[in-house]
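Journal club side-thread
Mid-discussion, someone asked how the predicted structure for our own chain would compare to the paper's figures. Pasting it here so we can look after the session.
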Amino acid sequence: MCETYSRWLLRVSVAQICQALGWDSVQVSACDLLTDVLQRYLQGLGRGCHRYCELYGRTDPILDDVGDAFKLMGVNLHELEDYIHNIEPVTFAHQIPSFPVSKNNVLQFPQLGSKDAEERKEYIPDYLPPIVSSQEAKDAVALTPVRASEIVVRSRYLRSTYWVWCVLSKYAHSSNKL
């Protein structure tokens, strides 16, 4: 889904660039080919920026990394600057939501003022799961030996019932074939 959406955005960008350069129409195959070229070009530029950023010991790229990546790809920065000054900027045709969509935080940090936050000791980090309070521990059903044997008997019954069902279903399928 993410790749399809980004590819669609690249395709719209290619069509707008072609229209800004004076083209009236473009065939679908030519537009797809130009979209592929633009995608590979941008991926190469991103890889180059990433390499130079790591080479200089940074995690976030800066404008110098982009310039070095352009030089690595053989792009003359003066020609690029002339192109930018001679062509009018084209605004994108569609509204673009923030991309990629941020996901909900699944970390279960205790909320300020919650029961867990109040009972949590200072030396216990917030990223650890919530603590079971002493009252909840008392309320929990204890697994006694009698209860454990009852669970084992039930699981054996369910397992034997499952096998009987499997045998009957195989028999039913074989009798239908006759």
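Post-session note: Residues 145-177 form the longest helix (33 residues).
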